[in-house]
Amino acid sequence: MGKKFIWMYIRALKCTGGNTEMNRTSHYLMFAATIPGPNGEVREALKRSHIFAYPSIWPETSCIAAIEAMSAGVTVVTSQSGALPETIGSNDFIYPMNQDMKQHSTLFTRALTFTIENYWRPESIKKRRQMALMAANRYDWGFPGWAEGRIEQWITILTMRMNEFDTPPDRSRHDSDEQYAEALFVSGKRQELRGNSDRARQIYENALTFNPKSSLITLALGMVEVNSPINTRVGPEKIALPTQGIVRLISTVSNTELEPVVKTDSIVQYGIDMRAAFWYKQAYYPDETNRALESVHASNYPHDDCFSEILRATYVPHIPMNVEEANGIVANFHKKIDELIPRVDELVCERIMVFHMAFELAYYDLDFRDEMSKWVQLYMKVFSSTLALTAPSLRNARIPKQRKPVTEDKPMRIGFISTFFTRESSIWGNFGRTINMLQKNPLFEAEMIYYPRTPLTETSAGLSMKPHTNLYLQKFGAGVQDPGLHKARTDIVNRKYDVLVYLDMWMSDDMHRLAVAKLAPIQAYTHGHPITSGIPKDVMDYFISWGAAEQSDREVAQSYYTEELLVLPEHPTWEYFEPRTQNGHSVINNGAKFSHFTRDTLPDLVLPEDKIAANKIKDSNSNIYFCAQAPFKFHFTFDSIIAGIQEHDKKALIVLVDMRGSDTLDNLHTRISKRLDSTSGVDLDRIVFVPRMKHHHLMAMYSISDVVMDSVYFGGDTTSREAFEVGSPVITLPHKTIGQRWTQAYYRMMGIDDFIAKDSNEYVEIAVKHATSSSSYKAETRERIIKLAYEKLYQIEEGVQGWEDMFLDIATRPRTWHWQDEKLV
User: What sections of the protein cross the membrane (predicted)?
Assistant: First the structure.
């Protein structure tokens, strides 16, 4: 293959005018093409060995035998002679070179004895794997057209040596379609290496028309497609170009109709499966993701554990199709992580982004603590040396001690960290004004720490009442050794907060990368994403929650958290909420008016391309049941509730949020539609999916709906309060944890219990009863909800007192962690 491939490039040079120097040296390239590649038989024989003893005394420039041994996963014991250290890398199995043969023999014997005695130690096993990976990554020839390996390096060198040309090769200068396809491939590769991916794709597509059996052209085209922007769509079915590329790549493996054949257990198959797993996960194709991950897991090609073990264990799909599938997913999650944790010292992975966040489990009917704590345990163990750190300026007193009382002269320093400090986010809607109120209190120095999920704006920076104290972190890269992460930790530690409060985790892994380190004496999490952080209590001390939302049995409530549960008083409303509307206008959407919209005017705005669906909403004979939650939150119980409503109200029209149109979420919509369609009693013709709406359109949808449905079991928080602002009754079924109990908590503050169900049947009964009630009763209900919401939920300054008391309490509790220069009692 090597000879043919290099000759292909030489032929392309001559047919395009070539390069004088390259033409002069073409015979050297031809000679290089005759040199055999790695010996598969030798590698297979070495795999049956444990140690490759190589007491070399020659100053070699390289050593193919050692490379073969490393690639087979065999421990190489050798000297520091010549370039051997550079060839096999720095490791414990290289001994000093000595020209005295007796001394050399002694050194070799010691090294070999040490290797034998320590062969089965976890660190030795891990070292062998790292050597095999290094050999595979550094020395594998790869495959023509594939993006990794020595062949691709030669392609790059040879291509860059060619003269610049933009015109395609001339068919008349080639003896066959196959040769012309090869010339097109070279032309396409040159365009690709120059950054002209679209042009390269066009040339590769043309090349395949002349030789559709070429595996190297198929691979090259597939790779360009995979690396295309996610929103690039092709064909009448508007398939995402990366999806088409993945399908194309998968089709090459073991396809005997292609030449040369892409073999299993090769760098190509492993690379294809790895990319397929990543892409299908991003695009929410769970079956395809799992197939790719199982193929990666089964591969005999040397590879790390990032995909084959860690992603395979932590991956949890959205929207299981039935209860049995959901139970199987949870069981496999536990089984795979339980299998990995005892082996964690052997695992090799430097790519932290492969840890799937597994927050989808929050939409399953679980208690969450066991699942999230296992995830964190694996996360902290795999990256123990780089993530699970303690600030060097912190000290552990072992015996709990108190700090001196908080005073105005020595205020308590609190850092609030979030990725969502923006005016329109629900995180700011929940916590923002509470933080501002704390900033007014001279007993506290409350500062805001911004992590840049989106580029920082002047408006966002100005949300703080003391913007000069804001701390702006840099966005982290993908590596565990990323300098941005190190700088962020250093910047936080330098602020010397008494308490560091994380507002939102599980949205991405960035917050967990910070939170698993001890960066302040007291660290706390609260309900930005309302489940436990899963982080051990000696790192994340507290979870801050609200008595009205937690179960009254505090022991039961505590059982859902790894942190110590701090419960703020049930009354009054615990946070200072600002209304998100004012006099029929959206505060979030720059004052856009919504109060003038009706059932006749709103549908055409939110469904401009679906007149049939718009007309269903316009139909005054229908009763509108609207759910503002993303459908990936729906539990099977909610599916049955939809079926029950449609059964008992023949005029029911269910309005749900359409997740399509955001590039990667299309398949989530497909899955929830299929699941609803398979649920007994659900009529998809009486369900309308509305695209995600601008805020003023969303408020109008609440206004025109007869009933708003709280999703089960992961319910609304901000969405429920928004619905109350326009008087919409939200039917809710509270469950176990706070993310399933917000709406009930708000009703408790308002003194309303009409719309709180005890089970799914009562949910249906309450919803249908209200939707089919008289217009006058509905109007009275809206007036009552609006009045009580504004009286009991919004701008309640007394609620901030609970936060102040809580912070002062934990500040003076005896604790073991303190700053080194902190004054203690």
Answer: none
Same domain, yes or no: 552 and 587: no
pLDDT digits (tens, 9 = 90+) for 197-215: 999 999 999 999 999 999 9
Region 733-756: mean pLDDT is 97
Among 326, 468, 369, 426, smallest CA distance to 629 is for 426
For residue 55, cis peptide bond before it (omega within 30 degrees of 0): no
Determine the distance from the C-alpha atom of residue 566 to the mean position of all C-alpha atoms in its chain, rounded to a whole number. 29
In the listed set 115, 139, 163, which residue is the last one of a domain according to the structure? 139
Query: What is the pTM assigned to this prediction?
Result: 0.89
Which bin fits 174, alpha (ψ -120 to 50), beta or left (φ > 0)?
A: beta
CA 728 to chain centre: 34
User: Within a domain: residue 426?
Assistant: yes
Query: Is 630 part of any domain?
Result: yes
CA-CA-CA-CA torsion sign (755, 761, 764, 769): negative
Residue 503 has pLDDT above 50, yes or no: yes
CATH number of the domain at 460, please: 3.40.50.11380
The owner of tokens 């395979």 is 312
Residues near 413 by Cβ (< 8 Å), separated by ≥ 6? 444, 445, 447, 495, 496, 497, 498, 499
Q: Which DSSP state fits 350?
A: -
Buried-exposed string 770-799: b where 16+ CB fall within 10 A, e elsewhere:
bbeeeeeebeebbebbeebbeebbbebeeb
Task: Answer whether residue 162 is part of any domain.
Answer: no
Q: 818 - beta bridge partners?
A: 395
Nearest residue to 218 via CA among 183, 262, 176, 155: 262
The answer to whether residues 642 and 744 belong to one domain is: yes
Range of the domain at 485: 394-568
Complete DSSP assignment for 673-735: HHHHHHSTT--GGGEEEEEPPPHHHHHHHHHH-SEEEPPSBS--SHHHHHHHHTT--EEB---
| Boundary residue ending a domain (84, 109, 139) | 139
Percentage of the chain beyond pLDDT 70 is 93
Paired residues of 731 in beta bridges: 709
